[in-house]
Each structure stands twice: as structure tokens, then as C-alpha cells.
Amino acid sequence: MTILMILLAVVGGAMLSIQAAINGQLGSKVGVFRSAFLTFSVGALITALLIFFFEPKQAVSLLDVPKWQLLGALFGVPYIVIMVLAVQRIGTAVATVAVIFGQLTMSMLIDNFGWLGNAAMGFSASRLGAIVCLAIALGFIYSSSRTKSA
Questions:
Q1: Residue 69's Cα: distance from chain center in Å?
Q2: Is the dihedral of CA 125, 126, 131, 132 positive or negative?
Q3: Distance from C-alpha of 110 to C-alpha of 113, rounded to nearest angstrom
Q4: Which residues are within 8 A (CB) of 112 and not within 5 positions of it... i.e. 6 or more apart?
Q5: What are the counts of helices (DSSP H) followed by strands (DSSP E) for the chain?
Q6: Which residues form the signal peptide (predicted)?
Q7: What are phi and psi of 20, to 5 degrees?
Q8: Residue 72 pLDDT
Q9: Residue 73: its pLDDT value, please?
Q10: Closest-CA residue to 83 (of 29, 28, 46)
């Protein structure tokens, strides 16, 4: 089951890169915020249909959870807007690796300190190595894209 979840996460990551590339093109034609609006509107519609047809009944509703947990929905807006802007200027690969670097760094902080109600998982040398390798990868991808565009 763990391998399946990892594969699904990889597929999800691939889909985010496709979404970023498409939204970058769309944003350059119709505007950054219209592109973001389309993403959220279509996403909300599809999610509503999935909830209606597939979501089992829950004992707790959105109105019953701690209100700070609802803030997670707000973090998608800056991500989409930033990606639409960034892809147009630095390309899909650099923008995506930069996002992954930010995700990995924040995820390790959340894990290490057990923030936001998550179980604490200690920081290690191999986790530090992963961040360093990703930073190096970001540098290589960025420098190669600058060389080609120059």
C-alpha cells in the first residue's frame, strides 16, 4: 500500500506540472487571476460532484472542525497565482523544482516540530542531504535554462 501511495503522489506531482504549464499559457492570454479563477471554479465543481457521488457520510462537518483547519484552503490561491506568474518568466521546470524545494523544506520543519497537529518525526542527516541535493538540482536546472535563453 505504501508503494501505491508513493506512486499516486508522483502522479499527482506530474499533474501539478502539467497544470502549471497549461495555466502559465492561459494566464499569459487571459490574465493571472482569471486563470486562477478558472482553476478553482472547475476544481470546485468537480470536487462537489465527487463529494455528492462518492464521499461517505462523515460524523463531523466542516462547521464542526477547529476554524484554523479551514485556513488550508487559502494556501491554494497564492500557489496557483505564483505558479501562473513564475512559469511565464522562469519556465515550468525551474518553477516546479522551486516549489518542490519549498514544499520539502516546510514539510521537514512540520515533521520535525510536529506543527499543525502532525506527529513529530525527527530531522536527520539524510533529510538534510535531500534538501541539499534538491537545492543543487534547482541550481543546475536554473543555470541550464538561463544558458539556453541567453
A1: 18
A2: positive
A3: 6
A4: 120, 121, 122, 123
A5: 5, 0
A6: none
A7: -60, -45
A8: 86
A9: 86
A10: 28
**C-alpha span between 118 and 13 (Å, rounded):** 22
| CA 23 – CA 29 distance, rounded (Å) | 10
pTM confidence score: 0.82
* Cα 148 to Cα 93: distance, rounded to the nearest angstrom: 13
**Block means of pLDDT (10 residues each) for the chain, length 150 residues?**
93 93 95 95 96 93 90 90 94 94 94 94 94 95 80
Domain ranges in the chain are: 1-56+68-90, 92-149
C-alpha cell at position 74: 487559502
The label of the residue with cell 463531523 reads 60
**Residue matched to cell numbers 506527529:** 119
